[in-house]
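User: For a benchmark we're assembling, each entry needs the component sequences followed by a predicted structure for the full assembly. Here are entry 17's components. Please fill in the structure.
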Amino acid sequence: MAVDLLVFGPHPDDLEIGLGGTLAKLKRNGAHVVMVVASIPKDFEVRMEEAKRGAEILGCELRLLLDGGPRRLEDVKTCDLVGLLDGVVKEYKPAAVLTHSNADFHNDHLLIYNACLPTQRLAPFDFFSYHPTNCRPVPIAFHPKAYVDVTDTIDAKMHAITAHKSQFGGRGLDTEMYREFAHLQGRMIGVPYAEGLDVMRLTLA
Amino acid sequence: MAVDLLVFGPHPDDLEIGLGGTLAKLKRNGAHVVMVVASIPKDFEVRMEEAKRGAEILGCELRLLLDGGPRRLEDVKTCDLVGLLDGVVKEYKPAAVLTHSNADFHNDHLLIYNACLPTQRLAPFDFFSYHPTNCRPVPIAFHPKAYVDVTDTIDAKMHAITAHKSQFGGRGLDTEMYREFAHLQGRMIGVPYAEGLDVMRLTLA
Amino acid sequence: MAVDLLVFGPHPDDLEIGLGGTLAKLKRNGAHVVMVVASIPKDFEVRMEEAKRGAEILGCELRLLLDGGPRRLEDVKTCDLVGLLDGVVKEYKPAAVLTHSNADFHNDHLLIYNACLPTQRLAPFDFFSYHPTNCRPVPIAFHPKAYVDVTDTIDAKMHAITAHKSQFGGRGLDTEMYREFAHLQGRMIGVPYAEGLDVMRLTLA
Amino acid sequence: MAVDLLVFGPHPDDLEIGLGGTLAKLKRNGAHVVMVVASIPKDFEVRMEEAKRGAEILGCELRLLLDGGPRRLEDVKTCDLVGLLDGVVKEYKPAAVLTHSNADFHNDHLLIYNACLPTQRLAPFDFFSYHPTNCRPVPIAFHPKAYVDVTDTIDAKMHAITAHKSQFGGRGLDTEMYREFAHLQGRMIGVPYAEGLDVMRLTLA
Amino acid sequence: MAVDLLVFGPHPDDLEIGLGGTLAKLKRNGAHVVMVVASIPKDFEVRMEEAKRGAEILGCELRLLLDGGPRRLEDVKTCDLVGLLDGVVKEYKPAAVLTHSNADFHNDHLLIYNACLPTQRLAPFDFFSYHPTNCRPVPIAFHPKAYVDVTDTIDAKMHAITAHKSQFGGRGLDTEMYREFAHLQGRMIGVPYAEGLDVMRLTLA
Amino acid sequence: MAVDLLVFGPHPDDLEIGLGGTLAKLKRNGAHVVMVVASIPKDFEVRMEEAKRGAEILGCELRLLLDGGPRRLEDVKTCDLVGLLDGVVKEYKPAAVLTHSNADFHNDHLLIYNACLPTQRLAPFDFFSYHPTNCRPVPIAFHPKAYVDVTDTIDAKMHAITAHKSQFGGRGLDTEMYREFAHLQGRMIGVPYAEGLDVMRLTLA
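Assistant: Structure for entry 17:
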């Protein structure tokens, strides 16, 4: 099997926050998109349901990397985590891989970023990173170089984010900042809403 | 008129060295490519002929920004240079603009890079920079993020470079390093020859 | 005379865009704030009036560095420009100096930034830079480290920006992005609106 | 309880070396300062006594994060360490947090730095980092942006450092370099002695 | 004992790839060179034999840090790894230490780099890092500052690399890219082949 | 003629401040050292005498690039300045070139740095930059990688600096900070006094 887009997120909700609009758009455009959620650290059943609902809203295939129950990423040896990601990349033969960026400061997010880097040696797929994801705003030094117009899918993105009730509504956290941020990113390419990506390796033409 | 690619080079030969393979390939693929050479500092007739020959080999349209005779870029005020580049961008309405990068250390190359940056405000075109260009090897900190497979056009590139006889053969300089460098870049995406670009702004999907 | 805040802007409107909310707030808090506009490149009378109106709205003192008519910053030698800024700093003995940052790409903005740097040797004033200012959105790599809550003065800021009719309304340009951006900056410190500054030198305690 | 300053140090002596002058000064100025020492890897009783003595000299409250005996920071899971720091921040509600910087290369120092970063999401406190701390000089790329005049407390700082006899006198190590370094930092703001901090997030005005 | 050069490599083959030509050259010039291989994660006997053969070809002394059987670097605590490297540095009293750089993205390579940094505090030896080592090409941001002409030892380097049959020939991987890369590095100093190093600390004159 | 060391300084006193100890030491060790002072902006006779005196104390040969009277560097076109530096490099065939670094913020210092960069293409000489030079302390982000033990020549350095009476004693400026700074640099390699250089290109072995 060869998919178009393989995206790695540390936990449920990261992919919806980081690039939900992009995923929904590419899916609508006919791409085969696989969302790989690395682990669910606790509240397994609840968060698994939310992950499924989020993927369903975006229309993408979902896969849990460390499945079977609650798992913490830092309990996995780095060499084993790289091996797991290698396996997924070999299985799906993606045209493009997207992962968290190193501008993030959540340890699990950096573990995924770092373990994704060596997968580049397996094949010359396009390789991007998405904006650090936080439930609450903090200053972040992330500079997107590539933008995706998500005007038609910003509502799906917001819908998919709020599907993670245990993370937002359940804790009284506001999700509106994601829409505002997408609007400001949109200004960079002259559209109502956009998501920004950093480009690590890309084959043009 | 709306062109596909508008590329800015400080002097004749820079565009051939920096991205000759890319230009030839895109042209073969049907793109409308305009090569803008900013100035010819001396030996006007000789270098103008070489520029024409280089563009002809690559199959691209050539335009001299400061025409009519020998001109030095640093004799033009920055605000006037920005105005000239703005004018070219407004005239050609390019889908993508390529310019020198700021990893270069030739002052004229940096003048073009710096004057290109503000043109981004005119429209959300894709914006790339190409590898610093030197006639002799010097260590350079340039990290391409995007690669173009130029296997089919590496010979055209080499041919277009050597068309600048006054710069290479006439000074006893070897051009073989450009082929070697393209070969090493090619290894990054698994092809015989590639050229690398940095991505400054890009709209995906 | 010793002022609290001496702020340098390349042209009329830069200070309003970059830190209008901060200036208005500090003024309301009792600070003595001097806005130094470096030059007016053309439309002298119109832009001088707009600059006066902007400063009036913010409640700050205005000074034009290169006065008497239209002047272009790049027509001034760097050593002379440094001398002029040195003179202003010696005259006002500011507790803090604010200037454009080097993340900007307008040549005149960088000229002011570069000429401000050496003034640091004159006295250990606090030294900050404000966000690059553009009339139209472009991606910028500026990371504020210090934030000013401008919730009470965001309206004054917006009012002062639109006082520059020749730059915005007169060209059909929208100023709403400045409010949106201030709102997103505000989220970083948990207030409705904020402006962000980079810190170059600061004496605490 | 809401304290003014919450400072995190990996081991006893780090806080005295990194910002002892600042702590003593703020305390003298009436601030409520809490020094949190993360762990004591060995020689528990000796180093605990030295830590108490150091804090006493500076006049600050001391708290050992991993108490009850010798503990190594890297034996604590990152998510648990973040949880512990979160707890301390929630308990003390600090106006400002200071931590080690990422220019350090001691692994334990980086563990504290990395675990402090996420605490920013809890509240918009001011957030600084202090100079890497070494018992012996090594070249370090740390650029302070904020300076504290510690002329009146440099002696207290030196006294507090030498209270850690097991680390300095006991190993024949000279502490004079800390005074020399503070003197050179002082030159940057025109005072006899200063300490430098990097600014990560700061609310002004 | 005081050696001239102490080089640390995470696994067998890293030192041959990263600086085999330099090691062979310095050895031929009369230097005492010790190659420390940190660990062999699996296939212990096979890779130990290959490591011995590689060192023999280069003419250097070999030492396995974690010996006695297969070991994984990440199973060693950082403080213990630093202790092991400290011990080796104290034992060999090297004039120069070379290690992996932080531009690498293999976790084991970074573990060695990070654990080498603190050894700098033990003595003012010269300290360099070598190019990231990969079996397959990936884009890397490494900027050598120092070059070693390895024209006379490039063949020994290539020979020593291919001695690691289990890593290259055995997996059908091509080693020719190392020669090409050395050739391009050579151009930077005008010789047929060179290896590049980054300089972290160096005493001149 | 082939010299050992060719050092470029923008004005009289820069070379004494930046690397006077290194120059005196290398000279004592038998090297042929040429100090090129780029220009004297005013007080030509006075400063020319001071430059001669400084070079005499260090024991080095002096050359004024723009001679015959007061000249300002920014009155020379960049392409002409590069041509002048090219000429000097071709004439002296230096084994090593030292210049100002880009961490400096004096415009004339940056002009010299920028014009030196292209001379690298002429020959593979070793290429270093020295610490930014200021008459008064300002925070600077310069990271030396190479150190020269100047314990035996620190007095010559201090003597040579104070020979520039019009710049120091004549303006009541203290030069003691240069000695203090050299002392702190010395700590990095375990000697009483050192000067630090950045390494841009170096051939080892």
